[in-house]
């Protein structure tokens, strides 16, 4: 039988693969933490968006009422 051919770089390749796997695991953990943080930020931003929409509605109502008050005052002055 012929002797088995061994790869002289096998040990080095194994060490490199172990390092790559370790780094991919660390990257995966970092991405999971990033996703958790982004989820918290999105929840916080959703609350800000709701307040902003409420404020815009309030602002439109105030503008509408002020314009109607101006029209009422002007109409009353001309009618007198």
UniProtKB/TrEMBL annotation:
It comes from the Eukaryota. The keyword Hydrolase does not apply. Residues 17-47 form a coiled coil. One of its GO terms (cellular component) is DASH complex. It holds the Pfam family DASH_Dad4. Its main location: nucleus. It is found in: Chromosome, Centromere, Kinetochore; Cytoplasm, Cytoskeleton, Spindle; Nucleus. Keywords: Cell cycle, Cell division, Centromere, Chromosome, Coiled coil, Cytoplasm, Cytoskeleton, Kinetochore, Microtubule, Mitosis, Nucleus. GO terms for biological process: attachment of spindle microtubules to kinetochore; cell division. PANTHER family: DASH COMPLEX SUBUNIT DAD4. Belongs to the DASH complex DAD4 family. This is DASH complex subunit DAD4.
